[in-house]
Design goal:
Shape: globular
Radius of gyration: 17 Å
Largest sheet: 4 strands, antiparallel
């Protein structure tokens, strides 16, 4: 059974440090088993300036089993699937320890953005590009960051109108945009999956 007391404590600790770390974790609904995480792109990388959203599900055995995380924001990276957002990171698998927290797991994911491991890829195409044509990899990663991880300069009403024109009810559009901090791309993915 998930230790909900610990989860609440972790969420409080993370919100206290949000200004300095940039890492945010919040419940995706009323229960504490499904969470949303946000990490800033590391400075000095092609992900700089981007805001990356992750889906976090806690298994029944948490904290003795690792949280299940994947990127909602599309990322061009050797250790992250460009299709599903799956993450290849040892601490999210066999190297997990109950001493780790959701925040340290997200910090590790952020560190992975800074230091790819192309020899242990999640996405073989990206890994080959990283190893064989690094400049093209950098350009593609920057482009994906600009396209998928940066909020557009449109105002809230323009975003609402744009999504309503796609056929979504205005009330759902507003709540989806609010839930994801105004990120139009992530709101669209959330609307399509609900």
């Amino acid at each position: 059974m998930v230790d909900f007391g610990r989860v609440q404590k972790e969420l409080q600790e993370c919100s206290r440090d949000m200004e300095s770390s940039g890492i945010k974790i919040s419940p995706d609904s009323d229960n504490l088993v499904h969470l949303s995480g946000t990490i800033p792109g590391p400075i000095g990388t092609p992900y700089e300036g981007g805001t990356f959203h992750l889906d976090i599900k806690l298994p029944d055995g948490y904290p003795f089993e690792p949280p299940k995380m994947h990127f909602v924001t599309k990322v061009w990276h050797p250790n992250i699937s460009s299709q599903s957002g799956a993450i290849c990171l040892d601490i999210l698998k066999d190297q997990w320890s109950p001493a780790l927290t959701l925040k340290t797991a997200l910090l590790s994911v952020q560190a992975l953005l800074s230091a790819p491991e192309p020899d242990d890829p999640q996405d073989a195409v990206v890994a080959q590009q990283y190893l064989r044509d690094y400049q093209t990899f950098l350009g593609t990663a920057r482009y994906w960051t600009e396209t998928f991880a940066k909020t557009s300069s449109l105002g809230v009403e323009e975003k609402v109108q744009k999504l309503v024109e796609m056929g979504f009810p205005e009330s759902k559009v507003r709540s989806a945009l609010e839930a994801v901090g105004g990120d139009e791309n992530v709101a669209l993915e959330k609307l399509c999956s609900s």
